[in-house]
Amino acid sequence: MSRSFKIGLFIAVSVIITTFSFYFWQVAKTPNFQVEKDKDFALLIATGGTYEGVLDTLKKNDVLNDPMSFRFLAKLLKLPERLKPGRYVLTRTMGNLDVIQKLRNGKQDAVRLTFNNIRLKQDLIQRIGNKFEFGADSLGKLLDEPQVCEKFGFDTTNVVSMFLPNTYEIYWTTNANKFLGRMYDEYQKFWTPARIEKAKALGYSKAQVSVLASIVDAETNRNDEMPRIAGVYLNRISQSMPLQADPTVIFAWRDFSIKRVTSKLSSLNSPYNTYRVLGLPPGPINVPSTVAIDAVLNAEKHDYLYFCVKIDPDGKLLGYHDFAVTYEDHLNNARIYQAALNKLNIK
Fold first, then answer.
1. How does DSSP classify residue 167?
2. Half-sphere exposure (CA, 13 Å, Cβ side) for 45?
3. DSSP-derived 3-state class of residue 31
4. Residue 279 vs residues 74, 79, 129, 290: alpha-carbon distances, Å
5. Which of 13, 68, 156, 179 has a CA between 20 and 30 Å from the CA of residue 189?
6. Alpha-carbon dihedral sign for residues 317, 264, 250, 239
7. What is the mean pLDDT of residues 37-42?
8. Distance (Å, rounded) from C-alpha 300 to C-alpha 232?
9. Which of 56-70, 152-166, 214-228 shows the lowest per-residue confidence on average (mean pLDDT)?
10. Where are the alpha helices (DSSP H) in the chain?
């Protein structure tokens, strides 16, 4: 074999290797996912999901720029046999290799779960369940099962107190039982020894604090006013007065369009109607915020027994409240408030 032939063969092989390497690099590393600039694509692979199902999802959502190169590398790296279920976020800068390795290794992207301002247990179930593989039905069955709720120290009426409004990162494939365990762990972390001692000083259980906190939460969205409102209700309870909290009446009717609680509405026979039933209702009337819970635990000490919405000189509702010690003073505040509602045509 001549020297020139060897040189020529070496050059030819080098060119082939370089060409193949460049092609492989392009197939592996070139961005190949048509994802919106400001919005990533979350690929959901259910437990038992197949490689063909993944391809269908990518095609249906028009995510792949070059399906052939993806399929080629996926087969080469045995993705169909090693596919892992989960939630995987695909970005516009990712190449085939990045995504395939992610799906092979099960490197999930957690769901950022945020919930607040939830009134009903069913609303909570839907809000959470729809974000995870286990679904709303599975979560609902667990939260309606007395033995499950009892395991965490609740009943089916007050179990929503275990869910503290916040933002959590949880894997999409987490099952419903493990999810409840996570929520219970977060609940336990929140209820520090200091908070538990404050609840005991009030003579309340943690669940009872949450019930009162839900009423405080419904009365005002002004965090700085919550401890004073909590103090009013604690004063009423200590004097064996009914709470007469309008939000409990609205909850009892399950009609959150009610703007004005009349004597007719407050005559409803319901354990949640604090105009008729003395003490706390059997469960929270919403999922109380941690701010409201702390407001109850750190309630302002005063002599107020009444409050109603504060009205400015122009007759507008300010969002804050006027407080009164005597019923006579409260009636005067209430007349101003009722006149403002009439002027605003709120019925």
1. E
2. 26
3. strand
4. 64, 61, 33, 22
5. 156
6. positive
7. 79
8. 8
9. 56-70
10. 3-29, 51-60, 67-76, 79-82, 96-105, 121-129, 135-143, 146-151, 176-190, 193-202, 206-219, 226-238, 246-253, 290-297, 327-343
Return the DSSP state at 33: B
Question: 311 forms bridges with which residues in the sheet?
Answer: 317
CA 125 to chain centre: 10
Tokens of 243: 């709470």
pLDDT score of 37? 59
Q: Residue 99 burial by CB count (10 A; 0-12/13-18/19+): exposed, middle or buried?
A: buried
CA neighbor of 233 nearest in space, from 143, 317, 321, 342? 321
Per-residue pLDDT band at 1 (split at 50, 70, 90): low
> Could you write out the DSSP letters of every residue in 109-148?
--EEEE--S--SHHHHHHHHHTTSTTHHHHHHHHHT-HHH
Please tell me what DSSP assigns to residue 95: B
Q: Provide the residue type at 147 as one letter.
A: Q
pLDDT of residue 16: 42
Assigned token pair, 291: 């701010």
Cα–Cα distance measured from residue 72 to residue 139, given in angstroms and rounded to the nearest whole number: 40
Strand partners, 324: 306
The secondary structure of 199-234 as a DSSP string is: HHHHT--HHHHHHHHHHHHHH-S-GGGHHHHHHHHH
Give pLDDT, residue 279: 95
The model carries a pTM of 0.86
Pairing of strands 306-311, 86-90: unpaired
Distance from C-alpha of 73 to C-alpha of 251, rounded to nearest angstrom: 57
The β-bridge relationship of strands 167-170 and 86-90 is unpaired
